[in-house]
């Protein structure tokens, strides 16, 4: 049925139109309320849609190669949890066009259930952001954005690929705009048998098939010179079977259904700006404990209503202030939770000022309230100093938090209503250098987390969530890039390195599944119509037990992939190419007892009309 719906969508949109380039709306006041310009003192990695298309459709693959984030992936296409600067998946905030979409049940996002297609760009901001972005923004934040442009005419893009393990991927995106209306519609469908063979064995990855369908519709209307109305919506439906290591094991599967919609009104006139947003979110899961007994299943549904009202004032070119009010209501019910609800209200104050042409600072404070527990006052202070045209410094200090999830509070027989929010204080400082073709950056940070929530064995061997350990994570992140043109060759080289030390301050042990070292490197070589890309990731050793048992630690591993493609730009633009992943056929594990695939292949075709 999902394949049929996607083919209908492809048929309806499949006619030729002329390609156009994108440009951003140029409004000084609107930019002042943009996440990019409210990140003084912190680093942002921006990943454009043109780069996203070079990876698997799941968000894990994109972020793994393009950022310092480590992903704990339970096998290809399975549950994927990020570790950002040594923090947990619950301590990474994911926002969809400004709305937090972390799971109400788990407090995290499974990045293999998020399609990377359909976004104009993805922004990754390191460091604390809870004062601005809400619960979970301790290690970092990931923002999925749709920028709808005007006066661009028609554009249709089609991306198709076939790969190893009977993997099929199809993406379609159509955009149209004139002076007053802009619209985008599209979708992505991926399916895979995912039955890769295990190393040194006749066995293969059994019961591991998955398929995902993601559809989206976005539209924006300029009501006049000062008012704009924008609608965003997306629907995701996915099913995946959880792998087994032996044929005698019980076969299970998991289904996801997620819906998100949002209506936003923007006003800009003179020194004033305003924005109001209302959003509806729904997540639904069904877990089949035995696929041969379909009535034996667990399920849950969570719904959220979010409203945001903000207004900004810019009295002069050097000063900007903003006030934002946020109200969120969550409901959940299911097999494990009979009925649960929570309401959170927040007031946010923001100030940004240029002290000189080269020196800028921002300060923000957030006051929040909920009936479940006392909420801390949150803040962030950041500054940027441009020493000269080549050298600059940044610094940021913040207090952040994460509220307990519905599972933490209400799980039958284990939920703990006395839990306190996790809180953290952190400091980071950065130096960056840019000169002609060179770019270099270095950041050091220190994070201290109190009242960390962990599920631990209590009475009668029942596991319960408790506020326990204090944790400190500190480290260094570095990045370097070089770009040049040599005769008819265009060459770009870039690399990211992250050193992370995450320590339980009570036991002095390293946190599990936090590698001390992660290194990514990329070579992008263009010659006429040919494009060659080589990439590698090196991930250091990780511990899988809290006592740091060396015998159960997972060894460090390098993973390389390469691609070669040819692009034609005659009457329309098309690209044909091939990609090889795990080029060296490395036998590696990201999670214990969850083997990853060896060398595998992909053929891809991209078309822009």
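^ Assign residues to that structure.
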């Amino acid at each position: 049925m999902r394949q049929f719906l996607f083919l209908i969508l492809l048929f309806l949109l499949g006619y030729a139109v002329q390609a156009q380039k994108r440009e951003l709306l140029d409004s000084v006041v609107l930019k002042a309320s943009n996440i990019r310009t409210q990140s003084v003192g912190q680093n942002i990695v921006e990943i454009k849609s043109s780069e996203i298309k070079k990876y698997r459709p799941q968000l894990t693959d994109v972020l793994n190669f393009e950022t310092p984030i480590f992903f704990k992936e339970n096998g290809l296409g399975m549950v994927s949890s990020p570790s950002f600067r040594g923090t947990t998946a619950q301590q990474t905030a994911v926002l969809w066009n400004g709305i937090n979409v972390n799971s109400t049940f788990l407090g995290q996002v499974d990045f293999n259930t998020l399609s990377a297609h359909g976004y104009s760009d993805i922004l990754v901001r390191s460091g604390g952001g809870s004062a601005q972005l809400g619960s979970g923004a301790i290690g970092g934040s990931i923002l999925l954005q749709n920028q709808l442009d005007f006066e661009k005419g028609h554009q249709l893009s089609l991306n198709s690929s076939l790969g190893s393990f009977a993997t099929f991927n199809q993406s379609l995106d159509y955009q149209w705009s004139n002076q007053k209306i802009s619209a985008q519609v599209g979708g992505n469908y991926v399916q895979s048998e995912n039955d890769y063979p295990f190393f040194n064995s006749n066995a293969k990855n059994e019961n591991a098939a998955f398929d995902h369908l993601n559809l989206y519709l976005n539209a924006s209307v300029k009501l006049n010179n000062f008012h704009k109305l924008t609608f965003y919506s997306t629907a995701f439906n996915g099913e995946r079977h959880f792998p087994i290591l032996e044929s005698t094991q019980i076969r299970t599967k998991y289904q996801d259904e997620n819906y998100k919609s949002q209506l936003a009104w923007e006003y800009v006139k003179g020194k004033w700006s305003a924005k109001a947003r209302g959003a509806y979110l729904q997540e639904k899961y069904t877990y089949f404990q035995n696929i041969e007994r379909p009535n034996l299943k667990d399920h849950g549904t969570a719904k959220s209503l979010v409203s945001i009202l903000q207004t900004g004032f810019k009295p002069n070119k050097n000063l900007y202030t903003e006030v934002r009010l946020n109200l969120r209501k969550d409901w959940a019910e299911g097999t494990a939770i009979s009925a649960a609800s929570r309401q959170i209200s927040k007031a946010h104050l923001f100030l940004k000022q240029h002290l000189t042409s080269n020196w800028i600072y921002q300060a923000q404070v957030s006051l929040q309230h909920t009936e479940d527990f006392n909420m801390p006052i949150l803040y962030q202070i950041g500054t940027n100093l441009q020493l000269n045209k080549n050298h600059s410094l940044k610094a940021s200090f913040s207090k952040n938090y994460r509220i307990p999830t519905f599972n933490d509070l209400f799980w039958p027989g284990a939920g703990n209503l006395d839990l306190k929010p996790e809180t953290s204080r952190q400091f980071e400082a950065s130096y960056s250098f840019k000169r002609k073709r060179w770019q270099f950056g270095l950041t050091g940070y220190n994070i201290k987390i109190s009242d960390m929530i962990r599920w631990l064995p209590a009475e009668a061997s029942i596991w319960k969530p408790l506020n326990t350990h204090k944790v400190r994570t500190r480290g260094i992140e570095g990045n370097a890039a070089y770009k040049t043109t040599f005769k008819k060759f265009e060459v770009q080289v870039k690399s990211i390195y992250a050193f992370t030390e995450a320590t339980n301050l009570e036991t002095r042990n390293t946190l599990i599944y936090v590698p001390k070292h992660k290194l990514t490197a990329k070579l992008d070589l263009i010659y006429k119509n040919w494009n060659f890309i080589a990439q590698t990731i090196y991930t250091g050793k990780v511990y899988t037990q809290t006592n740091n048992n060396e015998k159960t630690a997972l060894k460090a591993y390098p993973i390389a992939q390469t691609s070669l493609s040819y692009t034609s730009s005659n009457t329309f633009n098309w690209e044909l190419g091939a990609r090889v992943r795990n080029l060296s056929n490395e036998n590696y594990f990201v999670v214990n007892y969850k083997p990853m695939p060896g060398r595998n292949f992909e053929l891809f075709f991209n078309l822009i009309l």
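The two ends are 28 Å apart (CA to CA).
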